[in-house]
Structures are given as C-alpha cells and as structure tokens.
C-alpha cells in the first residue's frame, strides 16, 4: 500500500493527515497557515516527498443537499492546481460535517478552546482521510 495524504482545505489553513503504510489509519501531521498558493504547494511538495505519498485526498465541502457551494468551488480550483503541480492521483471526498465531528471530539476530550483552534483543521483532515480509508478497505 502507498501512503495517502489527506487535506482539509480552508481559506486560512490546510489541515494535513497521512495514512500509515498499510492504509489502515490516518495520523494528523500539521496545519499549514496559508500565505500564498505558491507557499502552500511548496510545503505540500515537501510533505509528499517526505512521506513518499502516492495519492492526494482532498475534502470537498458540500451543502447538506449534496450541491457544491462557493467554498466547494474554491476547493475544486485548488484541486486543479494540485493536479497540475503533482503528477499524482487526486481524489475528492465528501467532507460534510468533518469539522463538526472534530470539534465534538475535542470538546469531549475537554480540550481548551485555544488548543482546539490550533488542531481542529488537522483533526478534520484525519477524519476525512480515515473515512476514505475505511471505505476502500471494505
């Protein structure tokens, strides 16, 4: 199995998760503070090389009725940039409520609001990637 990088792409941050070598579990890696598309892609390139990633999974925010809204359109444009920059398979995954699930988990773990803010995007990326890994292992 090859490693998969999971991305939770937002306007200000990108949460990053990586699969284990067997493709069973997702681990949070970091949260990129977005400065420019050039710097975003540079950091992703470093992580892709470091972890020898073979596939990129991007959480696609959809409206509750399944349609793509303005944020989803931004993510699809980002996906196009990824496809042009990296010669890897790029897959989108429905990420509805991933941030909500991450927030509930952190609240349940009694993590302070300040700490939650620091890790929420990374944890959302883990949630997105783990959902994908679970779906392909069945």
TrEMBL record:
Subcellular location: Cytoplasm
Family annotation (SMART domains): YqgFc (SM00732)
Keywords (A to Z) from UniProt: Cytoplasm, Hydrolase, Nuclease, Ribosome biogenesis
Short name of any one Pfam family annotated for the protein: RuvX
Enzyme Commission no: 3.1.-.-
Gene Ontology CC annotation, any one: cytosol
UniProt GO molecular function: hydrolase activity, acting on ester bonds; nuclease activity
Superkingdom in the source lineage: Bacteria
GO BP term, example: rRNA 5'-end processing
InterPro entries from the UniProt entry: RNaseH-like_sf, YqgF, YqgF/RNaseH-like_dom, YqgF/RNaseH-like_dom_sf
Location of the YqgF/RNase H-like domain: 2-102
Matching SUPFAM superfamilies: Ribonuclease H-like (SSF53098)
HAMAP family: Nuclease_YqgF
PANTHER family, per database record: POLYNUCLEOTIDYL TRANSFERASE, RIBONUCLEASE H-LIKE SUPERFAMILY PROTEIN
Membership in a protein family: Belongs to the YqgF HJR family.
Function as written in the Swiss-Prot or TrEMBL entry: Could be a nuclease involved in processing of the 5'-end of pre-16S rRNA.
Protein's name according to its UniProt entry: Putative pre-16S rRNA nuclease
Gene source species: Alkaliphilus metalliredigens (strain QYMF)
């Amino acid at each position: 199995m090859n490693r998969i990088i999971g991305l939770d792409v937002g306007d200000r941050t990108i949460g990053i998760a990586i699969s284990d070598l067997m493709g069973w579990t997702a681990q949070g890696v970091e949260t990129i503070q977005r400065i420019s598309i050039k710097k975003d892609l540079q950091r992703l390139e470093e992580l892709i090389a470091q972890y020898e990633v073979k596939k990129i999974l991007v959480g696609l925010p959809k409206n509750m009725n399944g349609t793509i809204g303005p944020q989803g359109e931004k993510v699809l444009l980002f996906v196009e940039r990824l496809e042009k920059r990296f010669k890897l398979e790029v897959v989108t995954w429905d990420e509805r409520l991933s941030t909500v699930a991450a927030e509930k988990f952190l609240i349940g773990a009694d993590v302070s609001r300040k700490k939650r803010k620091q890790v929420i995007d990374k944890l959302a990326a883990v949630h997105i990637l783990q959902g994908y890994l679970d779906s392909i292992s069945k």
